[in-house]
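Example (one chain per record):
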Amino acid sequence: MQTVFLDRDGVINENRVDHVKSWREFVFLPGALAALRWLNLAGFRVFVITNQAIVGRGIVPTSVVEEIHARMQVQVALHGGQIHDIRYCPHDDLEHCDCRKPRPGMLRDLAHRWNVDLSRAYLVGDAWSDIAAGHAMGIRSILVRTGRGAQQITRPELRQYPPDHIANDLLGAVAWMMHREEVALAHRGAAQPSHERAVGTPLFSLQ
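Predicted structure:
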């Protein structure tokens, strides 16, 4: 079964300089819900892995992060998608944990828990740290230009950890994955996405 690991802020929802501190501040990025629906139609397992140092820094308690995630999963389900599991790292940089990206602890934990075939897995993120975590586990990675992605493209870390693909957004990332996997969505009553324009914009609408 194909699997995709998604960063949260900047991939699924809008990134905020002051962090997402409540459900009121959580805003889905355009096309994200449609992309998650298409992943579900294609039979992908979807996992979210997100650094949430706002817990370790005392900005919000764990209960707030978990409430946001529960509400996010409900909204995704209402729009035809599914998030199978979520891991978040509550630690600050200085705690040197194994789970905070670019370290791969969250990926390793989910892969073990769900018996993931990493050779068939993808990772989508908006930062070099996401891509580096994917490299550590041998997972094909996609950098999106949403969130911090457009600024991250020029960072020297991406030369060390180059993504397999750069897409405009999660919809573009899904289109690329579908093309690679040759997912025959037509057999499930939907047109199969084929490929992207050179700039990463899908040639079709997933809305």
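Caption: Residues 62-78 form the longest helix (17 residues).
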